[in-house]
Amino acid sequence: MFFDRIDAAPADPILGLNEAFKKDTRANKTNLGVGVYQNNEGKTVILDCVKEAEKILLEKEETKSYLPITGLPEFGRLARELIFGKDSEFVDGGKAVSCHCPGGTGALRIGADFIHQQNIASTIWISDPTWANHYQIATSAGLKFERYPYYDRANHNLAFDRMIETLSQAKEGDVVLLHACCHNPTGIDPTHEQWEIIAKFLAEKKLLPFIDFAYQGFGHGIEEDAFGVRTIAKYNPEFLIASSFSKNFGLYSERSGVLTVVSADVETAVKVMSQVKIAVRTAISNPPAHGEKIVTTVLSDPTLRAKWEDELKGMRERISKMRVLLSHKLKDAGAGDFDFITEQNGMFSFSGLDKDQIEALKRDFGIYAVASGRICVAGINSNNIDSIVEAITAVVKK
Ligand code: PLP
Questions:
Q1: Whether the predicted interface score ipTM is above 0.90
Q2: 260 pocket-lining for ligand 1 (C-beta < 6 Å)
Q3: Does residue 311 lie within any of the structural domains?
Q4: Cα dihedral across residues 257, 262, 268, 270: positive or negative
Q5: How do residues 51-95 score in pLDDT, each as one tens digit?
Q6: Same domain for 222 and 161
Q7: Does 212 contact ligand 1 (Cβ within 6 A)?
Q8: Whether residues 199 and 283 fall in one domain
Q9: Which active-site residues does the annotation give?
Q10: N or C: which end of the chain has fewer CB within 10 A?
Q11: Is the preceding omega at residue 190 within 30 degrees of 0, hence cis?
Q12: Ligand 1 pocket: which of 246, 259, 374, 376 to mutate (most atoms <8 Å of CB)?
């Protein structure tokens, strides 16, 4: 027998939560655990710009033959335009190379594989807390991870001094994973001044930045959310970025993401790309096409692009509105001061609720959230906000 000694893996905390939610028969149950955007009706709909691009593709697409290993060059170029800005030297200059990967997860994994396979580093520093998959992606790619503190629980803020202090212990050549914006799970991002300090610190310490850019456009805007990455680029000649189109195009199941690697010169970038190709070839051979063709169609058509920007703005603004409403309503209900929720960015918020309070929300009110206290603000809408406020108020007053 080969398989009888295998232990069952623990359930993925978030996917496990979804399973439990599905089984709950209460009519007014609410899922604040999932990491997908929902509209005011609680639906994760397909963006109009995506539907239109799909119609165009249906008409024009002539083959389902394989894509190049790194995806369509134009897709990579458009992704770099979003990351660095239209006029950046990294769009066409040749120092930055991009490769389509299956989602942000695929981009993180291919990036980690590349680092490991090329002996670039053996240790990656990851924020504590973070998107839980980061740790396992690092280890399954053969990297060792260390954690740096990120969250100041007492002040609902970034533990900036402790973060830098801990990263000071990193060895020259270690990798540091940073969230570009909308930090998952805390919703707390560095300020512009803090990004400057982080970027210079990494350059001085000769640490390699690896930036997870999963939520561009969900914080303050497409350009605004790129501030951190562009600041890293100002001081660090070499770095990696894993971007995702799952959230900002609502293309969750199409698995569309991009790994971009920036090198100090074009000659190095060409060699880097040749090795990234090997990493892709051995992991997935070549990428899925549909998502990247949608993104390429939308971003290269001025009308569709304007529609996308508008729809993305709509998602961002709805979440912001819910943040403000939630904190006001909680204050009015006597639950305490939740103003910090309005300072956080993106889909998620660290609510400050503890494990027992989260459990009570589920048990007594059918409201599901992650045990860490993370709630998905994108799951709140004008129909469920009052019952959410009532439930949170009841558990914090207990
Ligand atoms: N990085 C972070 C911080 C995320 O929150 C997620 C998804 O939740 C991802 C990466 C992965 O995104 P994708 O679905 O594109 O693989």
A1: yes
A2: no
A3: no
A4: positive
A5: 999 999 999 999 999 999 999 999 999 999 999 999 999 999 999
A6: yes
A7: yes
A8: yes
A9: 131, 212, 247
A10: N
A11: no
A12: 246
